[in-house]
Amino acid sequence: MIETKLGDFEEVLMLIIGILGEDESYAFRIAQEFKDQTGRPVSIGAVHSTLDRLANKGFLKSELREGASDRGARKKRIYSITALGKRVIKESMEFKVALWKQYPAFSGKFNMSI
Length: 114
Description:
The protein is mainly α. It has a domain at 8-82: Winged helix-like DNA-binding domain superfamily/Winged helix DNA-binding domain (Arc Repressor Mutant, subunit A, Orthogonal Bundle). It contains 4 helices and 2 strands; from the N terminus they run H-H-H-E-E-H. It has helices spanning 8-20, 27-38, 44-56, 83-102; strands at residues 60-65, 76-81.
């Protein structure tokens, strides 16, 4: 059985892939965006291993694309979220929003339409 729950780091990387879009979602750029969004550095190895794990779960797909001349024409692996990945990330968001709505300090303050 395939695990359909996301860890926090996995979830953040998937969100970043969605934010960057299909032209910019390669490991180095994902790591840069992670640092920009969180203020925390991340090793490229951690990003690669997590992207591989998410692809093995069926949440991401990837393809090699020709590199730009400014990169020495090196190919880069571009990641995108699969339909299963979109479903899993939506379920994760819905679960967390439901928890936040139950938290007494914030109950009634959430008006998120999902």
